[in-house]
Amino acid sequence: xxxxxxxxxxxxxxxxxxxxxxxxxxxxxxxxxxxxxxxxxxxxxxxxxxxxxxxxxxxxxxxxxxxxxxxxxxxxxxxxxxxxxxxxxxxxxxxxxxxxxxxxxxxxxxxxxxxxxxxxxxxxxxxxxxxxxxxxxxxxxxxxxxxxxxxxxxxxxxxxxxxxxxxxxxxxxxxxxxxxxxxxxxxxxxxxxxxxxxxxxxxxxxxxxxxxxxxxxxxxxxxxxxxxxxxxxxxxxxxxxxxxxxxxxxxxxxxxxxxxxxxxxxxxxxxxxxxxxxxxxxxxxxxxxxxxxxxxxxxxxxxxxxxxxxxxxxxxxxxxxxxxxxxxxxxxxxxxxxxxxxxxxxxxxxxxxxxxxxxxxxxxxxxxxxxxxxxxxxxxxxxxxxxxxxxx
Length: 392
Fold this sequence. Notes:
By secondary structure, the protein is of the alpha+beta class. Helix content is 31%, strand content 38%. The chain is built from four helices and 22 strands. It has helices at residues 5-27, 97-144, 149-193, 244-247; strands at residues 32-38, 40-56, 59-63, 68-70, 80-81, 86-92, 200-203, 208-213, 219-221, 226-231, 236-243, 255-259, 267-274, 279-282, 288-298, 310-327, 332-334, 337-344, 347-358, 362-367, 374-377, 389-391. A hairpin with a 2-residue loop joins strand 18 (337-344) and strand 19 (347-358). Helix 2 runs antiparallel to helix 3. The longest helix is centred in the first third of the chain and has 48 residues, at 97-144. The chain is elongated.
C-alpha cells in the first residue's frame, strides 16, 4: 500500500508540534516556592504590651518625728505589724539654748499678736454697737420725716460694714490664738525632749507588713529621717508606663493579661486608672519619649507576687470572638491601600483588601476577600500577577 506524498507533511508537522510542546514544558521556568496560609475566622485581640512592676497600693514611709538617738529597730523586712504597734523608739536630743531662745521668742511674738488682735476685736465691737444705735435712731427720724431716705441708707450701710469688720477681727483673733497655742506646744515639747528619760514611740498606722528598713541600727537621726516602709500586702497592684500615643487607646475597665511573672499561666487583671498626666522618659536608644502610667488591679489572686516584682502586661484594647482575619505577613501596600497575593490555579493573583484592627501577627479583614482563600506569605519582588507559584 502506498502512502500519499501529502500525508508526510502532516506527520512531520505533528512531530514538530510535539517537539515544540515538549521543549516548552522542559524549558519553561519552574514555579516559585512560596509559604502560604488561609484567611480564617476566629477570636482576635489587639493589645498594648509593656513591662510593669507590682507595688503595694498603700505605702506608708514612717519617719522620725523628732531629732534624737534612734534605738535599734527590732523588726525585719517581711514582718507583720498591727495598727498602733510601736515600730521604733527615739530618745529626743536635748534642746539647744539657741533653739529654746527662738521658741521663746516665737511664743512671745504670738502672745503679742494675740493682744493686738484682742484690742482690734474690742474696738470693732464698740464701732459696731455705735453704728447699730445710729441706725436705730435714723430709722425713727426717717419715719418722722426729719432725715432723708439717703441718710437712713447711709446709716444702715455703716452698720453692715461695722458688722463685717467685727467678724473679720474675731476671725483674726481666733487665728492668732491658734498660733500662740502652737508656739507654746512646740516649746513644751522641746523642753520635755530635754529629759534623757523621755522616749518617743513611733507607731504603725495600719495592719500590714514591713516592706523595707531604711534604718535599723542605733544612731542619731534628724527629724523627718525615713525609718521604715510599711504596706498592706493584699492591696497589690501593677503599674506600667506606656507611650502616650498608646495610652489614648487604653480605658479604665480594659482587661489585662499578666505574663512573664514566673508562673505557667497568665494572671487576669483589669485597668483601674490611666493617669491624666504624662512624663518624659529616655529610652534604651537614648530617645526622649512621652509616657503615661497605667494602674492595674488584679482579678485573679496575685499568688506569690510581692512588692516590686516584674511582670509583662498585655492590655486588651480591642477583641472579637468571630473576626475574619489573615496573617500580617501576607499584607503589603499597593498604592494607597492594602493588598495581598492569593493563589488561584497555581498562579499568583493580586487582590486589594480592606483592613481593620491589627496586632503583631494578625489583621482584621473588613472586605475584599473571603474566608478560606489561600494567601502568599512574605511576598518578594519576584511575585507578580499571574506568575506560577507552588505552596511549600
